[in-house]
Amino acid sequence: MQFVKRNDGQKTRDNVKNVTPLQLHWTILPHAKPLLQKQIEIYNDLANNLNLQVLIFDGFGKEFIKSCKISPDGFVQLTMQLAYYRLHGHLVSTYESASIRRFRYGRVDNIRAATPEALRWVQAMVVKNKTR
Q: How far is CA 99 from CA 13, 14, 62, 65, 105, in A?
């Protein structure tokens, strides 16, 4: 068993038991039914408007990116910013969850990818005839 330390200093066991999920039975009031139906329609319209294409890229992988002393995750974040910039002319506000559980009272924080440094990098990537 893995021991974890609680905030009060006592050690506890991290017990995880197999639990069978139970179906929840909701009581929906009559006046809420049309509101829920409208939200279902909005959701379905959004889902039906989704255009998804999967691209399998095998030109290189994370080991090559690491060999260039770049974080694979950071690489992906910057390439998404670059793609968005090429389409729209500006960065997109994005964030990614970041675990800080190793620190005291650790929780989840977020990392912002649309930074001034990212903007400078993206602009450098789109400049034509520039030595890179």
A: 22, 19, 20, 22, 11
